[in-house]
Amino acid sequence: MAHFDENAKPFSNKWLDERIGLNTLKRVLNTEYWIPKNINFLWAMGMVLAATFGILLVSGIMLLMYYKPDTNLAFDSVNYTIMSEVGYGWLWRHVHAVGASIVFLIIYIHMFTGIYYGSYKRGRELIWLSGMGLFVAFSAEAFSGYMLPWGQMSYWAGMVITNLFSLGSLDVTGLVEWIRGDYVPGDAYLTRFFMLHVMLIPLAIIGLIVLHFGTLRLPHVNNQESEEIDFEESAALWKAGKRKESKVIPFSPVFLSKDVFVMGVYFILFFYLVFYNFEFAMDPVNFDPADGLKTPTHIYPEWYFLWSYEILRPFSKDIGLIAFGVAQAAMFFLPFIDRSPNVAPAHKRGLFQIWFWVLLIDMITLTAMGKLPPTNPTFATIGLIAAVLFLAMGPILFIITMFEKKIEKGA
Amino acid sequence: MRELKILAVVVFFSLLTYYLVEPYAHSQMHKHVEGHNFVYTGEDDIQEASKEKKEVKEKFWSEVKTIAALKGDPAAGEAGFGMCMGCHNGAGVNMGGVIPPNLDHAGALYSKNYLIALIKDPAMASNVDHKYADTMTHPMGSVKTMFTDNQSIADVVAYLMTKKAGDVTPKEAYEEACGRCHAMRYAKLTQLGETPKFKHEKDALAYKIKVIDAQDAVKAYMGKLPPDLSIMIRARSEHFMETFVENPQSQLSGTSMPRTGLTEEGYAKVKAYLEEVGDPSKPKREAVGPWVLGFFFIFTILAYLWKQSQWRDLH
Prior knowledge:
The complex is a heterodimer. By secondary structure, chain A is mainly α. Chain A contains 16 helices and two strands. Chain B is built from 16 helices and two strands. Chain B has helices at 2-29, 43-48, 51-69, 74-84, 106-109, 112-120, 122-125, 143-146, 150-163, 170-177, 201-222, 232-235, 238-246, 248-251, 264-278, 282-311; strands at 189-190, 193-194. A two-stranded antiparallel ribbon of chain B has the order 1-2.
């Protein structure tokens, strides 16, 4: 058994160190968790996401105290009880709604940063995969949460999305009914999505966040030049006081100080949206109570699902469903589709750079067309082309990276 | 500086996406309807009318214009108003499908042109003549037999405009203009007005049955129960609300909702009440917002100074 100093005061540094290895923890997680120095503000997005998840968790707990998962009570418990009877209930709701929407903006920025700098490549595949796992979990969390106010958009989005599980012409209506617990979205449906939203998916997200951090610890964070850094050598320089010469900085306090600054700027934007511009996150259609007999004129998902919605929509039923499925899964395989040995930022990788910007613009195009009415033939055509292009992007990446020239070290 | 360039790229693409899915998409999704500042000249009615009805409507609204030019005598109008009192007595009793509205503030809420048109032909004025083969069968159709000459219409409208005006609260405006057909459960309002408190469940249930009866009558007349307006202010855009209230047919062709004839001021009052009930956090948002943003400005400045001190000797 280890040695315990009998003179150590309870909860003093030494006392804690002997019991939970406090100093080791501090070293491993903070003062000797080395981050490359050559980074920009995009490297703060991870902490910004963690902070936003924290905000969603806290605001969610506040809302949970008054929300009633019952088709007869849900709508009014949100729109009346929380919005006008509970002190600052409106604030928590607006924070939760804006947070749920803006978290996806940060996720997309975080993902495109990873793609641009090649942060999914050799050694970092698990970071990408666990991150994609988080993306899927956040998507499920967003969708299940969207059901809870039981407005028109909740109901009809639920109807449309659960219908996908009939698997097109296979007509597996039994599966759809099993998911809904009813023929149409009703009480059983609402209560199970409530459980998913407040219990199962948040637990999965927390687990995945831990995994995501874990996968990061050994390969270390990438840097702006995607340079392979000898972390041990650089860490030794830092510890010897050669802060200028060292290529790394400790997570705390040096990296954290920049993170906190970026978070500050982000929170200004966040709370500006909460107080003055929240409509984008709280669709007016959802302020009409759910009505199974009245289909809204336009049914569209929240903005962050529009690109995948537009991959489903322009095709016939079965092809659309297959395209949709492929598009959802494709991103997971990115580290394996990219055949190039180069770990480098896109601007050093020739055709890959063009591929990157085409992907970004194509996804924005899909996002826009996903909301615009498809009854307009111009929008429908642009949407179809953008969807086909998106599906082609995987094979294209495979081919161009196969022929990508190897960048010589030191070049 | 490189970071600022990267920031500019991120901001550009974020704003582009925002523009495309919010302002642009919404401008494409909804029908464009021109507003008329709550002035009622029948312009829209004539434009959207079918060929065979166009002429009748043109004639109707030109006559309204003629009457509006007459000088009305409020004293003579008061005698005429006696006939109105037969139904518009505030008793809250359903007549022919609807409860006749209380006219206590009619002069303050409704436009003069509209009142003239309404007395001349209620179905035509409220732009729901498509519901009737003969506009005499409108619940207020019999008014056509009461005021047969133009001067008597001008007189009674003059009376309403001078004697039935006065100050009106947002809640009164809402109740008089909308409350007969629309319930507003967040303000405990039904078609029968404010729901009283009952000591005994039995009385509460009895009252509830009365409400259901009243709603059934409205439903039978309108085709469906008009929607509850509790949070309508958040469910529809400002532009939709204005143009819809001004002329329901413009946004929802064929609807059985009549035009109410609110003036710009009258609508402002109604809107104030819809906002008070449907968006009660608005004043609180405006009060708390600057403090929270101020906090994060200071937070960011301090964080920047900390970052500078940590990164000073790194390069």
